[in-house]
Amino acid sequence: MKTFQITRPDETIREALTDKINNLTKPKGSLGTLEELALQIGLIQQTLTPTLKCPQNIIFAADHGIVDEGVSLSPKEITWQQISNFLHGGAGVNFLCRQHGFELKIVDAGVDYDLPYDRGIINMKVRKSSRNYLHEAAMTEEEMDLCIDRGAEIVRRCHAEGCNVLSLGEMGIGNTSSSSMWMTCFTRIPLEQCVGAGSGLDNAGIRHKYSVLQRALDNYQGDGSVRDLIRYFGGLEMVMAVGAMLQAAELKMIILVDGFIMTNCILAASRLYPEVMHYAIFGHQGDETGHKLLLDAMGAKPLLNLGLRLGEGTGAICSYPIVDSAVRMINEMDNFAHASITKYF
């Protein structure tokens, strides 16, 4: 498995950043979360004048073997059909990328379909769909390592293009099931509290989904290590996203974390390299059952709560203007001394 050199941001600059933020022409702390974000981004970039450059949203797409057990309302072919929609510019993520100036990259991690790569899809396919983890591991160790490597490679491309802020999204019918499995394994929150409606299951469907996932958990015969749990219950697109997050942190990029699935990916990444959390900004609290519990367990403070549960990176991109406001605050607000204003706090 690829190793990463991820370090906590150097704290030496914290005092100067805090002093700059506190001396902007406002009562101390009055811009709340914007001040917290400006401090975090200044620490990541090790500068008093942070910048956001060439934002990109990467969608990792793959199919899941567990879908064969009827855990999703949507059929498997929706994965490749929605990718076609991305290419035509008609999906939710497309209008948000256009609105907020994000470049969109679509990556085939393991879609069970022969996609038209000449249309701009990046071919990183490891295999056509993960295996059904009710009966066996979703992927081999070699396949997991390939996912990590290829996710990291995509981020290196983004970085070479001048990008320093990434949103990560996913497309894969069945991936809320895999996310629920990671959530219960890594947080010890009971599985029943981690399982939700996904793309729209009714109560009976949720009960069936829980029953299937509980049996899969009962059948697990692995060694319980982080690596083994990631490969056994993960999706190919999810593991690729883990590799992307780890590479982004090594390159000291800002990671905008999307909804339930991507929050579980940063959770898994943090179990491998805890320092990755210093580079993460949580875009929103989604409407999927378990997301709030997961965020609370991680001590994460999401920027938005709009009832979203689409995925694709949409919630993370929606939060971007708040991140931009934080950077504009520290760079564009005047300070008391220069503006000849008496401190009023």
TrEMBL record:
Family annotation (InterPro entries): Nict_dMeBzImd_PRibTrfase, Nict_dMeBzImd_PRibTrfase_bact, Nict_dMeBzImd_PRibTrfase_N, Nict_dMeBzImd_PRibTrfase_sf
Broadest EC class assigned to this enzyme: transferase
Reaction equation(s) it catalyzes: 5,6-dimethylbenzimidazole + nicotinate beta-D-ribonucleotide = alpha-ribazole 5'-phosphate + nicotinate + H(+)
Keywords: Cobalamin biosynthesis, Glycosyltransferase, Transferase
CDD domains, alphabetized: DMB-PRT_CobT (cd02439)
UniProt xrefs under Pfam families: DBI_PRT (PF02277)
Pathway annotation from the record: Nucleoside biosynthesis; alpha-ribazole biosynthesis; alpha-ribazole from 5,6-dimethylbenzimidazole: step 1/2
Kinase recorded as keyword: no
GO function term, MF aspect, one: nicotinate-nucleotide-dimethylbenzimidazole phosphoribosyltransferase activity
Catalytic residues as annotated in Swiss-Prot or TrEMBL: 312 (proton acceptor)
Function: Catalyzes the synthesis of alpha-ribazole-5'-phosphate from nicotinate mononucleotide (NAMN) and 5,6-dimethylbenzimidazole (DMB).
Family, as annotated: Belongs to the CobT family.
Protein name stated in the entry: Nicotinate-nucleotide--dimethylbenzimidazole phosphoribosyltransferase
Gene source species: Bacteroides hominis
